[in-house]
Description:
The protein has about 160 residues and is α+β, with helices and mostly antiparallel strands. It has 2 domains: about 1-90; about 95-155, no CATH class. The protein has helices at about 1-90, 115-125, 135-140, and strands at about 95-100, 105-110, 125-130, 150-155. It has a 4-stranded antiparallel beta sheet, sandwiched between helices. The chain is rod-shaped. It comes from Knipowitschia caucasica (Caucasian dwarf goby). InterPro entries: C-type_lectin-like/link_sf, CTDL_fold.
Amino acid sequence: MEDMEVIKERTHEKTHGQEDADGAVLVELKGLWLKSTLQTDALQISTLQIDAQQIHIWNLTEERDQINSSYVSVMKELDQTKDKMASTAAVSCADGWRLFGFKCYYLSQISYTWSNARRQCYYQGADLVVIEGRDEMVRALPASSDRTSLGYTTQ
């Protein structure tokens, strides 16, 4: 009988020990499941954040493209307006200056060296010019003079 009691006691100890081991495994499995769930949730949150950033980038790209398109349109309109103004603007020259092709020319009655003529033009806010075409020369130079210093300005 005594042997029976020892066997029962040992069986009870093994069963009790097995229950403790099973409980530990169960706790560990629950911990792993919780960790896996948290990692999955974190991954889903990261994916949502990336999606939101991609949408934001797409919206910014669309906005940039619209601004560029508007800029191009405005610049084109500005160029057209400048062209219209240049073609319709009445150019007037200061006293003593002659108009030719939307440009004002000054014909000096004094004969200067090239350097002095250039300096005089500079003082008047003009440039000394080289006349490149016969039409320009005929209109700019007076018919009565054989030697003329010529100054030029676009203002």
